[in-house]
Amino acid sequence: MTRGDVLVSVDNLSKSFTGAEGHELRVLHNISLDLRAGEIVALLGRSGSGKSTLLRTIAGLIAPTTGSVRYRGTELNGANPGTAMVFQTFALMPWLTVQDNVELGLAARGIPPTQRRERALNAIDLIGLDGFESAYPKELSGGMRQRVGFARALVLEPDLLLMDEPFSALDVLTAENLRTELMALWQQDNFPTKAICIVTHNIEEAVLLADRVLVLGANPGHIRAEVPIDLAQPRDRKSTAFATLVDRLYALLTGREPGTAEPEPTEATPTARPLPAASVGGLAGLVEIVYAKGGQADLPEVAADLNFEIDDLLPLVDAAAMLDFLHVAAGDVTLTPTGKEFTTADIQRSKQIFAEQARHRAPLVRTICTALASSAAGNLRAGFFLDLLRRGFSAQDAQHQLDTAIDWGRYAELFDYDTDTDQITADPNAGLHPAVQNESVTASLDTE
Ligand SMILES: Nc1ncnc2c1ncn2[C@@H]1O[C@H](COP(=O)(O)OP(=O)(O)OP(=O)(O)O)[C@@H](O)[C@H]1O
């Protein structure tokens, strides 16, 4: 096998899961890609775009609903024999030493003990764990644990190393150090794998490591774009070429997809336009920063100023765009007149503006307001909305959606939520329901 030969090919792959309410959740749609010897490919996408699911289908841990995954031309029917995985959370066996953790996969493949030992020691040495062979995971720092994660995968000498956000549970310096070491090893002749596929939501990480970045879009996950990263290793984060690629990927992640008819927030359903995972404080902070910068800002620059990863800003940007406080184009954000009024007004007026925008432009907030308005007493059980949301989201995502809507609704003084009674109640001042006065409402309604 030589450089450029196809190791794994994914052909027209789609994947659906059965949601909490028995409904079909479409997670991946019509994915086709090849992974070739000699390359590092990053799968870059926002949370929920199906990156991990795609990686797991490549590993053969999950079967596609339709389409296929081939390894060296043979369609998978179970685990992919040419891959090994490094996990975000290390996934080590706490009761086994470093040496035994690294040997585990070899034992499962029936390799005799002497060979196991020798291969494990080589992998431990390669990844800088020498001297820690008899340590237990709990004795190790996060970075050292992830080294065990790498050694455990590399010892199998897989054609293709799969990595699912391997650095995202580590602190910034440890992550940077481990990335640099990995890249140095990758360039050595004795690196035991032929290709790497890494899942990340971190744009800079993708530009640092990959030869090619596949940008995934969501709902359901699909490949939006492929961006070659034609920079020599080691790469310089401060170079203009690096910044240009970060900007381009950023624009791809935030921009509208050409040819897709994403519904306007004013018309969309809560499942077609999910609420971004942004708190009111976070999105208001971002709007304020853009205002302070004269009403226009380059987001990678804002992220750098704040010492944030750009990706941390994405949900805030999405939320501010959904509420029409900011416009986003090609990685730049511009303050809208509404956004300006929101950020400069006094607190009461700010809340009113937020309420007005959320009520019309945040689909789930709008749905809750409409449902409360048509309820008998201006209150409904939160479980009612959760049931509805579970038709389009997993149980966990449905809960996150509702939590965000409650955060926004509370701030806007549109509705409130009482944990003890599990009731969402129209705010007496919001004018949503005539029955809700400035006194507590006790009646409840079973709408189901
Ligand atoms: N086994 C499962 N059953 C039901 N839904 C699932 C299952 N696995 C994943 N999902 C859903 O599929 C969607 C995509 O999940 P996935 O973890 O692949 O995305 P991701 O892009 O890797 O996101 P993140 O960066 O948050 O891990 C999510 O909405 C998730 O809840």
TrEMBL record:
Key words of the record: ATP-binding, Nucleotide-binding, Transport
TM region(s), chain numbering: none
PROSITE patterns listed in its UniProt record: ABC_TRANSPORTER_1, ABC_TRANSPORTER_2
Signal sequence coordinates: none
Origin: domain of life: Bacteria
Annotated spans, Disordered: 256-276
UniProt-recorded Gene Ontology molecular function terms: ATP binding; ATP hydrolysis activity
Pfam families for the chain: AAA_assoc_C, ABC_tran
Ranges of residues in domain ABC transporter: 8-243
PANTHER family: ALIPHATIC SULFONATES IMPORT ATP-BINDING PROTEIN SSUB, TAURINE IMPORT ATP-BINDING PROTEIN-RELATED
Name listed for the protein in its UniProt record: Nitrate ABC transporter ATP-binding protein
Organism the protein comes from: Gandjariella thermophila
Lineage: Bacteria, Bacillati, Actinomycetota, Actinomycetes, Pseudonocardiales
